[in-house]
Write a structure and sequence with these properties.
By secondary structure, the protein is of the alpha/beta class. It is about 35% helix and about 20% strand. The chain has two domains: about 70 residues, 60s Ribosomal Protein L30, Chain: A, CATH 3.30.1330.30; about 160 residues, SPOUT methyltransferase, trefoil knot domain (Alpha/beta knot).
Length: about 270
């Protein structure tokens, strides 16, 4: 199974426009540009090759795509021309989908405009785009004001994420930051409490008062929250497990905690 990923865009648009814009499509054309993009680890959604095109460069592209777990497909002339009319493509293009990201301050402004206590999800190095999409979907359904993800070592919002989120990624503001730990410090300065998840914590997720402005931190599928990020959390909570399996899927765990926040706040 391929995990399609896309190049993040650094452009920030006013928040009022974010909800109305669909992801644009960027194309990298030509054999050498596509090879260099794959070698550089560029987050490519799909490589499209004109059927019948041969050569060592094409074979190298296919090999790099397989190594980077990027899907590649061969299509006929008409479909290829529908995709790109430029004759200098040399029979191969790479497609990347871009998401219009926002700033962290834009997310906080939403809670202010709604006169609600801030509710932010921070996803620390979530790598599986299906997990990212599932968490974004639940976040949108539970009224989360925005999601924060790291720029590096994590899945970006691409077509797989958009599909898994059932379109929620187009409605929910998402910010990309260089340093999660520093972002937590900045959120604290804005008055938010930071709640992280830790399976060895002695405090249950139901034992926290979620009425104050807060950010929930969810960690990587295998490693959990990184230690230096965990140290920035004001509270660490766990979800009790009663079976033989020692952990929940991270998107399921995130959903449980998000709805606990909703439950507690609705009681006020």
């Amino acid at each position: 199974m391929f995990e399609e990923q896309a190049i993040p865009t650094e452009e920030v648009t006013p928040l009022r426009k974010v909800h109305d814009r669909k992801p644009s499509v960027t194309i990298i054309a030509g054999r050498n540009p596509v090879i260099e993009a794959l070698r550089a680890g560029t987050l490519i959604e799909k490589v499209v090759i004109l059927a019948g095109v041969k050569g060592s460069a094409i074979e190298r592209i296919k090999g790099l795509a397989r190594r980077n777990r990027v899907q590649y497909v061969e299509v006929g002339k008409q479909k290829f021309r529908d995709l790109v009319s430029d004759t200098t493509t040399q029979g191969v293009v790479a497609i990347v989908a871009t998401k219009q990201y926002v700033e962290v301050d834009d997310i906080l402004k939403i809670s202010q405009e709604r006169n609600e206590a801030s509710f932010v999800m921070i996803l620390d190095e979530i790598e599986d785009p299906h997990n990212l999409g599932a968490m974004i979907r639940t976040a949108e359904c539970t009224g989360v004001h925005g999601v924060i993800i790291p720029k590096h070592h994590a899945a970006s919002v691409n077509q797989t994420v958009a599909k898994t989120s059932a379109g929620a990624s187009e409605h929910l503001p998402i910010a990309k930051v260089v340093n999660i730990a520093n972002t937590l410090d900045e959120l604290k300065q804005q008055g938010l409490w930071i709640v992280g998840t830790d399976p060895v914590s002695d405090k249950l997720y139901t034992e926290i008062d979620y009425s104050s402005p807060l950010a929930i931190v969810m960690g990587n599928e295998g490693r959990g929250i990184r230690q230096h990020v965990k140290e920035k959390c004001d509270f660490l909570v766990k979800i009790p497990l009663y079976g033989k399996i020692e952990s929940l899927n991270t998107s399921v765990a995130a959903a449980i905690i998000m709805y606990e926040v909703v439950r507690k706040r609705k009681q006020l």
